[in-house]
Each structure stands twice: as structure tokens, then as C-alpha cells.
Design brief:
With about 400 residues, this protein is an alpha/beta fold. About 40% of the residues lie in helices and about 10% in strands. A seven-stranded mixed beta sheet has the order 1-7-6-5-4-2-3, sandwiched between helices. A three-stranded antiparallel beta sheet has the order 8-9-10.
Length: about 400
């Protein structure tokens, strides 16, 4: 809970978490964690052989060759991105909008972070022409752009960038000497995996891309922090991994032993994990589609959600009506929508968007049910949208937006 409205709008500690699954812990995964609860041996910085090997298997199944000696693990994506950025010098470029936790990592390191607009068709990846313009402007002003962070499957936009857009952005970045950190946390949450094409930048520019993945995207609960990074198979990649491990060691940032056991199990994608992952993605996709229809019916705009557990809505078309209610920027929109929907609706300013833009991220997790038991029934139901508690949640959501 926020101490005050003013506090909630400013300090990083009040920033919004990534959209959660809204689902109870997978029973078999809980068993694995419990079985490892007596473990007293800590994981080494960067993760032990079992965890790193499991990460390699995960990436191999997605067409990315991997060496355990070029993998690093950390207790969550935030410390891992912090260590990655620390291993590079120079300024950081980010798409606008971007995940709420990216910019603070650069600021903690004292690095300038420059936001680059995204193309009309998707979020997560910068427009290549805007990227080139930004790089040249930063250099003209005496800056030293070194790193581009992007996400093909995106929070907050909930889109998947088309392969040609990813290729053009990556070619522009590499041509300007930037290293790319590809956050692929949401790649396993595609709503229609057989209809959506997702290419990792590491497939296109293998020597210039480090892949980052937070397991809470699809594999493990957010309360069990674990993330992994895959470095390029080059001399520079090995050097960057070594520097990253130095930072993780200095911070004491290691994955807890029992969590490492559960993470390695989840990365192996046995049947219980794989089935849960697919069902959850399809379920959240169905809820996101309903939420998207409600947003459009209310006169707002959002790109059709393709991945994740959220959508990103633009209420600019309702500006005059919202202004009459005292809502003139994204901070006021966040406060207003959160109260109206009874669920967090972080404003676009959290994601690097302009304060005057009336945008907010809306999560699908609250639509699953009011309790874990209801959410579990929703996951198992042949027709989840027909369940009374889901219909009620969707109707309440639509009516709240229609009343804007």
C-alpha cells in the first residue's frame, strides 16, 4: 500500500510490479522447492552447473545454442540487468514505453538513459530511424551510447514485434556499435503461439546480443526470484559475463538454494510445467481479448494484446470527459482508474511515457477470480469465460470503463 498519494507517485519503491499470473503455485513445483528446503549449500554467484545447464536446455529448445559457461543467474531480473549494465560503460537506450524497472537500473549506476519512440505497430523495440537519430544526437551532445535494451514480447505494450521490425532495429543498433540486451521474459506467454512469429534478436545478431529472462514471466512464482542471462559465444561475451559475475559477487546477489532447485526443474519444462505454461497463456489471452473489446467500446484505444497478462490502453480520446473529472495526466489517470477498477492501473509515466499522455497498463490477473480457489477453477474450466465469477469480473470491468 502507498503511504500517501505523493509517495506513490514518486519513489522507485512504489513502482508497479510486473503483471502476476493470479494463479496458485504449481503443486509439483512447490514439492521440488520443499524437498530442497533443507539445503544449506549456497549457489555460487551466477548460478551452479545444474541451473545453468537447465537454462541452456531451455534456450536450445528455442533455437538458441548455449554454453553453460556463458550463462549467469541472479535472484531476479532487476539485479541481473543492473550487473549487465555495470559490465558495460556508457549510456543506455530504451524504447518508449518500457518496463517500469528498466530505467531505475541505469539511474542507480549514474548512467544516462535515453528513451526512443517505438513504431506504430508494436512496443518494446525502438523505431530504427528514431534510434539512429537518438544515437547521433547523444554523441553530438558528448554522450557515449553503448547499450540498447529491448523486448520483442513486451511489457507494457503486450505486443510481439514483427521479425522485420526487430531485424531493422537490431541492424541499426549494431551498425552504431551498440550491444543489445534482449529481455525475453514474456516470450512464453504468447496468446496464440501457432499464429504469432517471435524471433529473438540473438538469432539475427548472435555476436551482439545478450538474452535476459526472468523466470516469473511464465515458469515460476514472482515470490521465488530467479533470472538467467545468455551471453554471446565470443571473447567479448566471456569477458562481459566475467564482469557481470564480479558485480553479482560484490552485491551478494545469488539465487537461494531451494529456489535454484525449483528454477532448474521449471527450466527443464517437464509436463506439469509445460501444461501450466500453455494453459495460463491461453487463459490470459482470452481475458485480454475481452478486456481489449471493453477498452475499445469505451472509446479508448489499445493495440490488440498478443502476449503477457495485461494490455496498454490510451485514453486520449476521452481527454475532455476525463478532464471534467479532474484527470489531466497519467498520474491522475492511474489514481482514478485504480479506484474505479479496484485493481492497480499504473499510468504511462511509470513506463517512460510522457506525463501528459493518458495511458495506463491494465492487468488481466484480477479477472481470474477473487481467490486462489476461483483462479484455479478458472484455469481448469473448459469454458473459463462462462464461469459466473469471471463473467461478473468482466462485466464490472467493462461497466467501469464505459462510465468514463
Amino acid at each position: 500500500m502507498h503511504g500517501t498519494v505523493a509517495e506513490g507517485r514518486g519513489p522507485v519503491r512504489y513502482g508497479p510490479p510486473a503483471p502476476g499470473t493470479g494463479l496458485p503455485v504449481l503443486p509439483r513445483l512447490a514439492e521440488v522447492l520443499a524437498e530442497a528446503a533443507g539445503r544449506t549449500r549456497p549457489e555460487p554467484p551466477g548460478g551452479g552447473p545444474e541451473l545453468r545447464g537447465a537454462a541452456c536446455g531451455y534456450w536450445h529448445r528455442r533455437g538458441l545454442r548455449c554454453d553453460p559457461d556463458l550463462v549467469a543467474a541472479a535472484p531476479g531480473a532487476q539485479p541481473l540487468l543492473f550487473a549487465l549494465l555495470a559490465s558495460f560503460g556508457g549510456d543506455v537506450l530504451l524504447p518508449r514505453p518500457c518496463p517500469a524497472w528498466w530505467t531505475p537500473q541505469a539511474r542507480l549506476l549514474g548512467r544516462p538513459a535515453f528513451h526512443v519512440p517505438t513504431p506504430a505497430e508494436c512496443g518494446g523495440v525502438p523505431d530504427p530511424y528514431a534510434l539512429l537519430e537518438t544515437v547521433r544526437r547523444v554523441r553530438t551532445e558528448g554522450g557515449l551510447p553503448r547499450v540498447l535494451v529491448l523486448s520483442v514480447a513486451d511489457d507494457p505494450a503486450a505486443t510481439v514485434a514483427p521479425p522485420e521490425t526487430v531485424r531493422e532495429a537490431c541492424e541499426a543498433a549494431v551498425g552504431e556499435g551498440l550491444h543489445i540486451i534482449s529481455d525475453e521474459t514474456w516470450r512464453d506467454t504468447l496468446h496464440r503461439p501457432h499464429e504469432t512469429v517471435l524471433f529473438s534478436p540473438a538469432e539475427m545478431c548472435p555476436d551482439d546480443v545478450t538474452v535476459l529472462s526472468d523466470l516469473s514471466g511464465a515458469l515460476t512464482p514472482a515470490g521465488w526470484p530467479a533470472a538467467v542471462a545468455r551471453f554471446p559465444g565470443t571473447e567479448h561475451g566471456a569477458q562481459r559475463r566475467a564482469r557481470t559475475l564480479d558485480v553479482l559477487t560484490a552485491l551478494g546477489s545469488v539465487v537461494a538454494g531451494p529456489v535454484a532447485e525449483a528454477a532448474a526443474y521449471a527450466l527443464g519444462e517437464p509436463d506439469p510445467v509445460a501444461v501450466r505454461m500453455r494453459r495460463a497463456a491461453v487463459l490470459h489471452g482470452a481475458l485480454a481479448a475481452e478486456a481489449h473489446r471493453a477498452v475499445l467500446a469505451a472509446g479508448a484505444f489499445a493495440r490488440p494484446p498478443q502476449a503477457g497478462r495485461h494490455l496498454y490502453a490510451d485514453f486520449g480520446g476521452l481527454r475532455s470527459r476525463l478532464a471534467a473529472r479532474g484527470v489531466t495526466d497519467s498520474m491522475e489517470l492511474e489514481e482514478y482508474l485504480t479506484a474505479r477498477l479496484g485493481a492497480p492501473a499504473p499510468g504511462g509515466h511509470r513506463f517512460g511515457d510522457e506525463l501528459g499522455a493518458l495511458r495506463a497498463r491494465l492487468a488481466t490477473g484480477p479477472l481470474l477470480g477473487a481467490t486462489e480457489e476461483e483462479a484455479a477453477r478458472t484455469l481448469q474450466a473448459p469454458d473459463p469465460l462462462g464461469l459466473p465469477h469471471v463473467r461478473h469480473a468482466l462485466t464490472t470491468f467493462a461497466e467501469a470503463l464505459a462510465g468514463l
